[in-house]
Automatic annotation (TrEMBL):
Keywords: ATP-binding, Kinase, Nucleotide-binding, Transferase. Pfam families: Cytidylate_kin. Residues 3-216 form the Cytidylate kinase domain. This is (d)CMP kinase. Its EC number is 2.7.4.25. The lineage of its organism: Eukaryota, Fungi, Fungi incertae sedis, Zoopagomycota, Kickxellomycotina. It comes from Tieghemiomyces parasiticus.
Length: 220
């Protein structure tokens, strides 16, 4: 979910012609991020549950997974003003209430929230009851992303020859990891109380089962 929000903001920045390698354009991200209306919804496509991302009312689920967005999202995500705007979006989605309002309290009002992202457990919801740090070998992650893009193109009957190669996907993934680990604001790191799951050799169902078992044990 977290990555989808940053990707949606990146998509809007690119659509408005911002060059994210230029400082002058990066300074415009603050205002842009605060005007983005981003939402995510879980929807069934037949028997498959998928998370759909909306930007200003438009379905951008596939558009935020392009190579251009992949290459620009780290520049967007490391901007402190953007991170603050995204923090408010995330907490709104989660039902987080700020102290000082007549109708709110400073706490998380929902008890059945599942949220993913690179700093959810360290910056966004450090009080979460269960934190899972999901990791995998970079080559395996790149292969998964590459195959996902291929499947999406086939489903939409698009020309797959225009898609990035596996090597390009891997390079971009490694570059983003390095940028996220080394950024000044909310760098990628594991929360001390997070449970680490290495998904390199696990199927999606196996990953889900492990996390569900952890959640059930915490609620017991």
């Amino acid at each position: 979910m977290l990555g989808s929000i940053y990707r949606a903001i990146t998509l809007k920045a690119l659509a408005q012609g911002l060059d994210l390698t230029q400082e002058a354009d990066r300074q415009r991200l603050d205002g842009l991020a605060h005007t983005c209306q981003v939402d995510t919804q879980a929807q069934f496509d037949g028997d498959t549950l998928r998370v759909v991302t909306y930007l200003d009312g438009q379905d951008v689920t596939d558009a935020i997974r392009t190579l251009a967005v992949n290459r620009g999202v780290s520049e967007v995500a490391k901007a402190p003003e953007v991170r603050q705007a995204v923090l408010q979006i995330q907490r709104r989605m989660a039902g987080y209430k700020r102290e000082g309002s007549e109708t709110t309290t400073d706490k998380l009002s929902t008890t059945d929230l599942v949220m993913d992202g690179r700093d959810i457990g360290t910056s966004v919801f450090p009080q979460a009851e269960l934190k899972v740090y999901l990791e995998a070998d970079a080559a395996v992650r790149a292969q998964r992303r590459y195959e996902e893009m291929q499947r999406q193109a086939m489903a939409k009957k698009e020309n797959r020859s225009t898609l990035p190669t596996y090597d390009e996907v891997l390079r971009d993934l490694q570059a983003r990891d390095a940028a996220d680990v080394n950024r000044t604001h909310s760098p990628l790191r594991r929360a001390p109380d997070a449970v680490v799951i290495d998904s390199t050799n696990l199927t999606i169902d196996q990953q889900v089962n492990k996390i569900v078992e952890l959640a059930q044990s915490r609620m017991a």
